[in-house]
Design a protein that fits this description.
Length: 281
Amino acid sequence: MAEPKKKKIVSAESGEVVTSVPKKPQVVQAAPVGNATGLRVGAIVLWVLAFVFEILAICILFGKIQWTFMPQLYQLILFIVLDMACVIIGSQLWKKANHIKPASEKNPTLFWLWNNMGVIVACLAFVPFIILLLTNKNVDKKTKTIATIAAVIALLIAGGTSVDYNPVSAEQQQAAMEAISESVFWSPFGKVYHTYVVLDETGEVVECCPHLNRSEQLTTGTVEEAIAAGRTRLCSYCAKHDAITGVATDNVDVSDYVPEDVVETVEDAAETAETEADEAA
């Protein structure tokens, strides 16, 4: 009996050999939204601790607190690290709370302050210490240099991680909830939520947005749950595919993902219209 020949899988779209067949992503249910008030309280407590660590570092800097078992430089670095950790964790809790219960855009100043509280706290938790450190003439040069570099790095890390790069307003959240009543989907590392996902009777993915082709797992939930998870914008491809308007979307150029047959149909229609116009003239 002849040995079975090895089979090749060829893509119908490109004609190239496919080395592996992509698996359909698994869909899991979103976690509960959570309580915004509790998260804000936790953030405030951590920020207060950050200020306490800053004050302790200043006391060590001026000799108000002296620990003989550890060099002054090590003490300063210890409190700088503790300060940074409290600022970062508190800021993450605050951003999470902002996504659960966003601020209104009716007052732009308050909206900006509400969404940048983490950055403001980061500056308050490090800038005064850095200024006092640089102006203190009683600290040796090595300690001043290393401690200043450590504090500046901590400030940059804490400030950078505290920024909400995708803030959402109460008005945007309400508009999205009114426009989309069905479940939405998002990937573990994505920054937007999607509506173009088709499931069969068993809950398996049949079709989905091209942006999700490489995702092994999708989370599904309401728009409110998606925004709470940090996905504050709707995928622009999904918005066009499902004809959804009035909702904040990302800035992806959807023309890059239009199927070739649609492009050809549009081009043919344009050529036909141009020919008819020339004949009419």
